[in-house]
Design goal:
This protein is α/β, with parallel strands linked by helices. Among the domains are: 73 residues, Ubiquitin-like (UB roll); 145 residues, Nucleotidyltransferase, domain 5; 108 residues, no CATH class. The protein has 14 helices and 22 strands. The strands form five sheets. A six-stranded mixed beta sheet has the order 7-6-5-8-10-9, with helices on both faces. It has a six-stranded mixed beta sheet with strand order 21-20-11-12-13-22, sandwiched between helices. It is elongated.
């Protein structure tokens, strides 16, 4: 009988007799086929070796740990039905900057805990391009692969210990990352991804024994990495679509994953259109020297005091600020614009900024936190160069949204039922601020929904729901990926979006009484 519709099932194998001398393996196989309602299941040799004695000592009752991939169901392990040993899985977001591991109880679907850590490959190259170039050197690929595998192993083990479990309790591993990170995680040559015509080695990696990837978990464990569509649309985005449920929506919705790039998918259960574009480097420690990853002391919120019109700040863990992250920069730009400290072109007003503005090397800087209240001993300021980068990023974001929603899908922003915001940066974005600077469309606030780490969310979903596998493959097949050709029309739209909030202010009716 089925205990629950998951990857762990309680089964009863028919007893052998003189009237039924079918081999143990075939009776187990038939039991599982009936249980799963399928035509084929793989039973590995490691389970067969002790199957006769195990079945008899367990009274022909067992706990089956299973997995499902694109070829068939797989029996991962067979356990004593009376055993109270935990059966766990790990879902992993293999991010370029940060990796997050989640520990899941496969019998209940409950998340036991999670742990995030910096991707150690950043020591070799801060971005995907640098890492792929390095991977083409003699020992480069092995070095990059060892770095990420070792760190994932260490953190899985630490997470298990933290909650009273052992790494051997982990039977399933699901991982989602962009195309390059997936290749490096698997130890596969990646150099062709960045060479014309930009061809990955593999789009749909097969489920692997975890030992093949040097993952230090249960010896019988299986590992699955989400498939990608091409060089610029990876498994992390497919995982995000799965998590958002976009592929099952009746009405048209949009998912925007904002990180170093902005990846966007619009559609519903009948169709999905996707594109990617560079909208975020200025927001996360890329172009802007001020933008940094969220951590203690980093300013994540800025707002205007309604009475004094002064800018108020909030730093993570409420300690003296050391910098500002992407969400804080958007808040800051919104506050500067709404308080008229910057004009519609995104230029500082010396008259209104007053003493908060100073000039260095011919460039204006706006002081957000003076040296006496800073955690670094130096003033935290926003330069005109930083602001220009932010202006370009917000314009790129809005233009990409306009191209995919209006020009490609033939819709208006008001036609969107839900606007899902994902990604580490997207998790903290304030839609009001993003609308105020013309980064996101002016639609009702209840339309926006923060997904958080959707890449991790989809990887967790697969551990909880065997039916998710068919959805993953269907999502991959149904996506139409469009290249954002930077043609004259795109550049004209982009130029219009470089104003605050836009050259066409009527697009932002909620700001009419604020500016």
């Amino acid at each position: 009988m089925m205990a629950k519709k998951g990857f762990v099932r309680s089964i009863v194998v028919e007893n052998p007799s003189l009237n039924n001398n079918t081999a143990d393996a075939q009776r187990l196989e038939q039991c599982l086929l009936d249980e799963l309602g399928t035509d084929y299941i793989k039973i590995p040799l490691s389970i067969l070796k002790k199957l006769p004695s195990n079945l008899r000592s367990w009274g022909f009752r067992a706990k089956a740990v299973l997995f499902k991939d694109r070829h068939s169901w797989i029996l991962v392990d067979l356990l004593n039905s009376m055993s109270d040993n935990p059966v766990l899985g790990t879902a992993v977001d293999i991010g370029t900057t940060r990796i997050v591991v989640s520990l899941i109880d496969l019998e209940t679907g409950v998340e036991i805990g999670r742990k995030g850590f910096d991707n150690p490959q950043a020591a070799i190259g801060p971005d995907v391009l640098a890492r792929i170039h390095y991977s083409s050197k003699k020992t480069g690929l092995a070095e990059l692969n060892n770095l990420v595998i070792d760190s994932v192993n260490f953190n899985i083990s630490a997470l298990c210990k933290e909650h009273g479990y052992k790494k051997e309790d982990v039977y399933l591993f699901t991982g989602a990352g962009n195309t390059a990170m997936t290749h490096l995680f698997l130890g596969i040559e990646a150099i062709e991804i960045i060479k014309e015509p930009y061809i990955p080695c593999v789009n749909i990696p097969d489920t692997q024994p975890a030992v093949n990837l040097n993952l230090d978990i249960n010896k019988n464990a299986l590992a699955f990495l989400f498939p990608n569509i091409g060089s610029y649309f990876g498994g992390d985005l497919i995982s995000g679509i799965l998590f958002s449920g976009l592929d099952q929506k009746q009405d048209t919705c949009i998912v925007v994953d904002v990180g170093t790039n902005a990846e966007i998918v619009v559609g519903n259960k009948d169709w999905l259109i996707a594109c990617a574009g560079a909208a975020g480097p200025a927001l996360e420690g890329g172009v802007s020297k001020m933008g940094m990853t969220a951590k203690p002391g980093v300013i994540d919120q800025v707002w205007i005091d309604p009475d004094s019109r002064d800018l108020m700040i909030h730093a993570i863990d409420e300690i003296n600020p050391v910098g500002i992250c992407g969400s804080g920069m958007i808040d800051l730009a919104a506050g500067l614009f709404l308080s008229k400290r910057i004009d519609i072109q995104g230029k500082f007003s010396r008259q209104i900024c007053g003493e908060q503005l100073f000039e260095k090397d011919g460039i204006n800087h706006f002081i957000l936190v003076d040296e006496n209240h800073s955690g670094t001993g130096e003033a935290i300021s926003l330069s005109q160069v930083d602001l220009n980068s932010l202006t370009s990023s917000k314009a790129a974001m809005y233009t990409i949204l306009e191209v995919i929603v209006k020009n490609t899908a033939g819709l208006e922003f008001s036609d969107l039922e839900k606007f899902y915001v994902a990604g580490t940066f997207g998790s903290f974005i304030n839609p009001v601020s993003a609308i105020s600077i013309g980064m996101l469309p002016d639609i009702p606030l209840e339309t926006f929904e923060v997904l958080g780490n959707s890449s991790l969310g989809g990887a967790k979903e697969l551990l909880k729901d065997p039916d998710a596998f068919e959805r993953i493959m269907k999502i991959r097949q149904s996506i139409t990926y469009i290249e954002l050709n930077v043609n004259q029309e795109f550049m004209n739209m982009f130029s219009g979006a470089k104003f605050y909030p836009h050259t066409d202010a009527s697009r932002f009716p909620s700001l009419q009484n604020k500016i």
